[in-house]
Amino acid sequence: MPTTKKTFCRICSAFCALEVEVQDGRVHTVSGDPSDPLHGGYTCMKGRQVGHQLDSPERVRGAYRRRPDGGFDEIPLTTALDEIAGHLEAILALHGPRALATYAGTASFFNGGTHEVLRGWLSGLGSPGYYTSLTIDQPAKMVASIRHGVWGAGGHSFASADVALSIGNNPIVSQLSLPGGIPGNNPVKRLGDEKKRGLVLIVVDPRRSEVAKHADLHLQIRPGEDPTLLAGMLRTIFEEDLYDADFCGAHVRGIEALREAVSGFTPDHVEERTGIPVAQMLEAARRFARGPRGSASSGTGPDMSPRANLTEHLIMALNTLCGRHNREGDPIANPGVLSPERPHPAQAVPPEFLPRMLTLGGDPAPRVRGLQQIFGEMPTAAIAEEILLPGEGQIRALFSTGGNAVAAWPDPTQTRRALESLDLHVVIEAQWTESARLANYVLPTRLPLEREDVTYFADPFYEQAYSFYSDAVVEPEFEALEDWQVFVELARRMGTPISIGEGEIDPEDPPSKKELLERLTQGARIPLSTIRGSEGGRLYPEAATKAAAAFEGIEARLDVAPEGVPEELAELRAERIPIPGRYGEDGTFTHLLIARRMRHVMNSVGQGWPESSKRGTTNPAFLCRADCEALGFAAGDLVEIESEHETILGVIEPVDDLQPGVVSMSHAWGSGGGRETDVRKLGAHTGRLVATNKFFDPTTGMVRMSAIPVRLVRAD
Fold first, then answer.
1. Whose CA, among 193, 216, 219, 456, lies 20 to 30 Å from 383?
2. Quick check: is 554 in a domain?
């Protein structure tokens, strides 16, 4: 007899509520939960296919050891863990703790407790080698927060906004929820509801994206020119006295320095660089500044483009100049259901009060390119170089969890070379990814439907106070641990501690998942036991609070012109204005390639799934029809896409939502090993177009992964 169980999806950070029909321990159907108060039955096609993950022919169904010939032998899980612990002990004894590193990909963030245990395990071994997908995605947002400062009471919510400015973000496809931006939970409905209320939506995007089609004003910018546009908007706001002088006078420093720094970004200059008509730029600046409520926010697009740190800082400066921060008494609908009770003061937070993840620097520093630790992490854009560079501190053992390094890291040719050179490479994975096939050991892990969890990662990002605790829906048919349990088992075998917060995990008496989550949510506004006792997701309006009064004696201010920003603006203003069709250092590249997302996949997740494959088995090279006609391309043609670093193949798809000179492709497709010969079935790896040691951000190490100069020719 089938039963229906409530759970939530963990493919992306939206964590949509699901109803799963189960019979005889197997998943039959998956659908959205119409009774859920936040998602209202919404799911995407990826979420409705989560049952396919369980029975996929590519599922890792046991522990495997790599043979010298490259094949794999299945071995007992306990044997694999024993051998791995022994190999790691030998490596650490010979080379020291810096020889060990871990990479935690996007999926690892969607399993509560994984990162806390992982960091505790590394700390117990004395290793600083903590790398995550955060530092190759949107690290600029963190850098901007560090330079600009943080407002204790947060910014205006989307639900209260009169105007919203969305820059390079497409939550209708990505489901990414960012503070003040369009919520990723049922995004079309949420956007439609606010538009009916009177919201004015301004979108900045080189593509007429799904979100841009809903915009009152769409600024179809040239790729990579976001900081130029924002500087021009700020200049207009200064020139026309549209900023909140009272708020700035009380809480902000650097006003005059920023005014001077953006003075050269005249409307005509901005139009010449960005391609946006003067009238549109002025309208956007005026409509946003006059609000009176609403935030500017951004997504992956500008953060993968050049000068991402400057772009994100100018977005924060725009919000601050226009006073888009909660004042004393303003409602805060979601202070974090799983967060402890604490005040949210309407004032700038002193840097010494900020968490570790809002810091730059630290010891030891990376060994390459003069980079530094960021947010208490090592920069992932440098990890392949750290593996390949001989000498003290060389990484010789890598543990990967929740990520596919070959698909995700820039320059996959270098990535493969690095992974193949490791003394010990352990992948904790549910699927036989390209990275898994390069490992010495592959350990099976539980998929989301096979584990209990709470909406831990998404908790602070929900616009309303919402939480969902789900038990496991089904059990795996073979022995498998959760990712974090692997590190507990290794600590037990190696006799090392795992610290979490102010306490430790006892590897000899490890916690259950429920016990781990209880430790991580001690003092929560809503006790975990209350959330766990509710079937399905619930709103908790009793968790809502209000912006508190400022603490006396604290004189911190937000800084709109911190050290480095005026200099970066001066460099930007002094740059040669790119000539369309003549991009790159030598001016020989005709197009700029931008990143994008597609509905049927999430990074590399979903590729090859039955319903997703009906939407396509490649990441097309989307090109405007005028360019296709000029170049003699037709739909389905195979083309070579050449950058300054390498060449990939792409399958042409003519579209009407791009301007001439722009090609758009999704990331995390294709193979990292040489030229793709089956691009129609595998896609093309856009990361092969860039090198990690060229055109990178000196603060984060982030490589240019969008607005890449390329040229296109028909493939032979």
1. 456
2. no
Q: Residue 149 — φ and ψ, nearest 5°?
A: 105, 170
Helix (H) or strand (E) holding 310: helix 308-321
Q: What is the DSSP letter of 350?
A: P
pLDDT digits (tens, 9 = 90+) for 400-441: 999 999 999 999 999 999 999 999 999 999 999 999 999 999
* Partners of residue 445 on adjacent β-strands: 481
C-alpha angle 669/675/679, rounded to 5°?
A: 45
* Whole-number pLDDT of residue 1: 80
CA pair distance 543, 341, nearest whole angstrom: 9
Question: Residue 163 falls within a domain, yes or no?
Answer: yes
In sequence order, what are the beta bridge partners of 74? 64
What are the tokens at 296?
């500017």
Residues 595 and 684 in one domain: yes
Strand residues in 409-528 grouped as ranges (E): 424-429, 441-444, 453-454, 466-467, 469-470, 498-500, 503-505
- The amino acid present at 182, given as its one-letter code, is I
Strands 17-23 and 3-8 come out as antiparallel
CB neighbourhood size of 662 (10 A): 22
pLDDT tens, position by position, 552-581:
999 999 999 999 999 999 999 999 998 999
Contact 356, 375 (CB under 8 A): yes
Q: Is 135 helix (H, G, I), strand (E, B) or coil?
A: helix
For residues 329 and 377, membership in a common domain is answered with: no
Length of the chain: 716
- In this structure, the answer to whether residues 665 and 598 fall within a common structural domain is yes
Domain with 611 in it: what CATH number? 2.40.40.20
Place of tokens 């739909």: 635
- Residue by residue, DSSP assigns 221-261 as PPTT-HHHHHHHHHHHHHHTT-S-HHHHHHHEE-HHHHHHH
Q: Which of 417, 411, 441 is nearest to 429 (CA)?
A: 441
Range of the domain at 694: 579-714
Q: From CA 12, how far away is CA 18, in angstroms rounded? A: 13
Pairing of strands 503-505, 453-454: unpaired
| Pairwise CA distance, residues 231 & 130, whole Å | 35
The DSSP-derived string for 23-35 is ETTEEEEEEE-TT
Residue 302 lies in a domain: yes
DSSP state of 69: T
CATH code of 245's domain = 3.40.228.10
Q: Tokens in use for 28?
A: 């039959």
Q: How many domains does the chain have?
A: 3
Residue type, 338: L
> Can you say whether residue 250 is alpha, beta or left, with left for phi > 0 and alpha for psi between -120 and 50 degrees?
alpha
Do residues 204 and 167 make contact, with C-beta atoms less than 8 angstroms apart?
Answer: yes
Contact 428, 480 (CB under 8 A): no
d(CA 208, CA 212): 5
Structure-token pair, residue 244: 């909140």
At residue 676, the pLDDT reads: 57
Give CA–CA dist 684/682, Å, rounded.
Answer: 7
Residue type, 222: R
Give the separation between CA 266 and CA 495, rounded to whole angstroms.
63
Q: Using CB atoms within 10 A of its CB, is residue 675 exposed (0-12), middle (13-18) or buried (19+)?
A: middle
* 628 and 674 share one domain: yes
Q: Do the Cβ atoms of 79 and 441 come closer than 8 Å?
A: no
Low-confidence ranges of the chain (pLDDT < 70): 673-677
**Per 3-state DSSP, what percentage of the chain is helix, strand, and coil (rounded to 5)?**
35, 20, 45
| Alpha helix stretches (DSSP H) within 57-113 | 77-95
> Angle CA(426)–CA(428)–CA(433) in degrees, nearest 5?
90
Separation of alpha carbons 130 and 48, rounded Å: 33
Could you tell me if 158 and 463 are in contact, meaning their C-beta atoms sit under 8 angstroms apart? yes
Rounded to whole angstroms, the Cα distance separating 207 from 591 reads 14
Q: Is residue 231 part of a domain?
A: yes
